[in-house]
């Protein structure tokens, strides 16, 4: 990796250190790969199956190849120099990054996986005492995934500156069918509205002692042959809500029966807020028409508990090249942020009142992406095409849109993902050097650390073209002092590695207790919640890993039945969540395959 400049850029901490991407997703524009060290990995393949095992039911649709893919995968990108300077120790994550430290080699952007750009970031927690409640983790298994090897980086920090409505209706022909999961009376069967066939088989037949029950299983509504998005998944105290194509469905968390009639939108759903508000509201965006030139500019607020429709709005077009062909939505407190390709607009999520616009600032800085949640981050592209081209990161006041701090990313480095917004943990890519870097910032935007590791880290991330899906990664979690990232699962189990945000160094690691990959879901400062994916002879499981002390042995919270492992493993592009002792898994993409009913959602519980 090339060394950082002898002197850091003005107002910065030095040029980021670069690390070759390891098994990562290519340096595509708006990559959604967010692997720890190394470019995020493309969607992992389905679990290994024994000879003559039946093939998965759904075949994911082929997605367009992501630009920048094809860099060779190299080990340990996180030991190479990063944007902020030279790493202290050799290894893929020890080479200098944008700030001079451990970038990951092997940034190598892998070929894009079948499900392009399904939106989805972990949702905010609910009010339950359960630390893991209400925070869905999105698994984009059909997206770009890559390995990350961490390097250092330096940042320049400046002071803060500156009509149609959905129709509520039942749609028998397109509504998901409901399976009756068991002769077991406690299996909470659905309402029996399925159309027969495999779905009505007893999914709890042969369930072993200690295994969870299938509470309910839904098949997806019909989708066009070209496929359709099924973004988001939200769990409240009584309702599981899922979007699919043009509809929004609500199921009782215990038995899967409809909580309220399905809402059908005039056109296909094109974006959703991954988060929900404290009072269980979300905002859905749908297309303006069915024409090829249609815009994703129609907003509708929805109450998840009742299905009631709230305010509506049409997103205004931006200036030249600043379109709403695609948009990204996020919620921070009471603020909804809508990101266009080169600007953003904020609304009061309760009333729909416009609050502020985030447009070009400085000489040539245009907002390119937003990341919401407990904090609101904006990433801007500055000086495009010039010798000073670079990215800048800002924390915005969600009420006013004003920048609380601004951090200049060293030239040549691009912000691909925000693994965490609080604390701020960023995944950076460098196309010219074919390297990646993971950098943590302090609460004032100054450099905190750069990760250093010899591993190939492999969160699963989606893929975007016009917008940067900053929070579209599954398999990352962070608390105040630590970030947790999965290693690559080449064959069999992988490991989760805990890195200190103070030093960037490894604190501890733990191996998956199963024969498949284990992915972080979320952390609460005391425990890390993780999902162990199914293997050919075992269902998935949910585990809790103590993050303090000397022992980090995974404790099993829920063991899904082996009898439905083939169904569970068939959700290649998926969202998962664990709330109040129940595990939910749903698809993020419909293939439009008419040969068999597609999966929509599956729920397990004790």
Automatic annotation (TrEMBL):
Residue ranges, compositional bias (Pro residues): 42-67, 111-122
Residue stretches making up the Pyrrolo-quinoline quinone repeat domain: 214-359, 391-528
Positions with biased composition (Low complexity): 169-183
Keyword Transmembrane: yes
Top-level taxon of the source organism: Bacteria
Annotated region (Disordered), positions in chain: 1-133, 160-204
Transmembrane segments: 137-157
Alphabetical list of SUPFAM superfamilies matching this protein: Quinoprotein alcohol dehydrogenase-like
Keyword terms: Membrane, Transmembrane, Transmembrane helix
Listed Pfam families: PQQ_2
Identification of the protein by name: PQQ-binding-like beta-propeller repeat protein
